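Me: I hope this is not a bother. Any chance you could explain this protein sequence and its structure tokens? It all follows right here:
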Amino acid sequence: MGERRLSRRIGRVVVVVVIVVWSVFPIYWALNTSFTTLNGAQSVPANFVPRPFTAHNYHILLGQTSGGVANQFWRSFLNATIESGLATVLTVVIALFAAYAFARLEFAGKRIILVAVLATLLLPVYATLIPLYRIMSSVHLVNTYAGIVLVYTSGFLPLAIWIMYNYFASVPRELEEAAFVDGATPVMALWRVMIPVSGPGIAATAIIVFLMGWAQFIFPLVLSSDLATQPVTVVVAALYGQRIVPFTLLNAIGVLAAALPGILALVLNRYIVQGVMAGSIK
């Protein structure tokens, strides 16, 4: 029995190590490549430590060295922040009202409507890409923040509603009933009771939606054809396709582009876990 337990533990450790290396090594290699020269990155055998070490790529992106790539990157970084931020706010606000209605109010066809909304999560991206583009084009919202934000919101809303629905369903009804006794309406109960006690759920929804918006590629690629509205994911792919930007600089761009969502995920991980898990335990 002792040998079996030991072998199981060793097996688990090996599996965990493999998963960690598989997940972390690409990030490390991007950092390693971004802090070296093109010749150093192409050396054989490969250098697992930057040789020679240089921060020249980051000097370019931070504007300390002249170059149009820096302007493209920071404009696309700003676009991604604006689009993901606005989509997050709009999605969370709509999800709050929709989730509260599904969790607390009684109306005809509630269950069918909820299932229909959640069923849209099963639709592949490509099934809605062309119809959404035609709709945005017909109302002249292609190459605009509004068009991208509305498309993001339509795609993220079902998941946001599901997360908030589970969270609201876990909140004791006695809290609302006390508010109703005092003469509160459902909207007042949502504002004064449900929202204050649902902070972790709202935070989790907002963080998840923002990260999903930041990672989008297909929709902004189709809906935006110029730098005025293109997010960083699209611009990085375009720079790679031009074959004129050193891949050491592309790795530096990738590191900076991943820094914001990475920091958010690490710092706010506790809220994500609390918000997602709260509705599973009553």
